[in-house]
Write a structure and sequence with these properties.
Blueprint: H1 17-26, H2 33-38, H3 43-48, H4 54-63, H5 68-87, H6 103-119
Helix pairs in contact: 5-6
C-alpha cells in the first residue's frame, strides 16, 4: 500500500497498521492514529472486530481511549466498506506486476475473491 494515498477499501483485510492510520484520517478519526499504531491495529484486527464480545469491545475502547461516538463511527465505516464490497461498488485495479493483457481477467477474479471473503464475515443486514 502506498503511504501517499488512502488504502483501497476492498483490501482492508490486508491493511497494515500504516494503512489503518491513513483510513482513520480519511474518516475523521485521525486523532486515534497513534494509539491504533501502538496497539498494532491492522486490517486483520479490524476484520475480527465483527466477532468481538461485549467485553472485548469495552477492552478495545479503554485501550484506545475512544469515545463511544467515535467507536460507533468506526463500526459504521467498517460496515460501509463491507457492504460496498458485497455490492461490487469498489474499484479493483490491476497490480503493477500483472500484464495489461490480463487486466479484465484479473479484475473479475479479484472481485469474486474479495466479495466471497466479505460474505464469509457473516455480515448482518
Amino acid at each position: 500500500m502506498s503511504k501517499e494515498h488512502p488504502p483501497e477499501p476492498l483490501d482492508f483485510f490486508i491493511w497494515t497498521v500504516e494503512d489503518v492510520g491513513l483510513w482513520l484520517e480519511e474518516i475523521n478519526l485521525g486523532s486515534y492514529r497513534q494509539i491504533f499504531k501502538e496497539n498494532g491495529v491492522n486490517g486483520e484486527y479490524l476484520e475480527g472486530m465483527s466477532m468481538f464480545t461485549t467485553e472485548q469491545i469495552l477492552r478495545f475502547i479503554r485501550r484506545c481511549h475512544m469515545k463511544w461516538g467515535d467507536f460507533i463511527t468506526l463500526c459504521k465505516e467498517l460496515r460501509r466498506i463491507k457492504v460496498a464490497c458485497l455490492k461490487g461498488e469498489q474499484k479493483v485495479r490491476r497490480p503493477w506486476w500483472a500484464p495489461s493483457c490480463l487486466s479484465v481477467l484479473f479484475v473479475n477474479v479479484a472481485k469474486r475473491n474479495r466479495q466471497s471473503r466479505v460474505v464469509s464475515l457473516k455480515l448482518e443486514p
